[in-house]
Amino acid sequence: MSSTVARAQRRMLEEVRTSVVSPSVAGPTVCWSDRLAAARPEEFDELFSTAVTGDFGTVAGLHQMLETASEWCRAHGARGSAAELDVLAGRLADLGEELHLVREGMSHEIRSGSQRAAAAAAARASPVASARGARVGPTEAPAPPPPAPVRSLPCSR
């Protein structure tokens, strides 16, 4: 791959990594990392889905860019680079599928955690729970979270 193509790819990857244009806002650039870091639990799943795995998310945008670059290289006689870009686009598609599975598991964990937090808050507010809390003696520990599902990573090509 030529150094010009490599530099252009690094620049594009950096731009995609740090921000993308939000499909819901005409024009402004949104820094998804900042938005994810500041998200409340009830909005994180949808925000992650939009930013990463959605139709206009970073994975889809980078995949489209790789396909476009591959087509351009093919049209301009750089068939080796086109083939390399095709392989990367395929690996990115696999990564997108894996990220979608991670998002599904994350969504379940977030919902479970929110339900546990709501139940704990309700128990603290309950007069029975308050009276029980005043007792001296062992207390009940919250149940540990369920283990994360095990997923195999896609094989590289």
How would you characterize the overall build of this protein?
The protein contains six helices and two strands, in the order αββααααα. The protein is mainly alpha-helical and 157 residues long. A two-stranded antiparallel sheet has the order 1-2. α3 packs antiparallel against α5. The chain is elongated, with a radius of gyration of 23 Å. Residues 16-28 have low confidence and may be disordered.
Give a short summary of the structure.
The protein has 157 residues and is mostly helical.
**Shape by Cα distribution:** elongated
Helix count, per DSSP? 6
- Assess the beta-strand content as a share of residues: under 5%
Summarize the helix and strand pattern as letters: HEEHHHHH
State the end-to-end CA separation. Answer: 18 Å
Number of strands: 2
Q: How big is the Rg?
A: 23 Å
Strand order of the largest sheet: 1-2
Summarize the amount of helix as a percent range: 55-70%
Task: Please state the average pLDDT score.
Answer: 73
Unreliable sequence segments: 16-28
Task: Assign the structural class, choosing from mainly alpha, mainly beta, alpha/beta, alpha+beta, or little secondary structure.
Answer: mainly alpha
Largest sheet: 2 strands, antiparallel
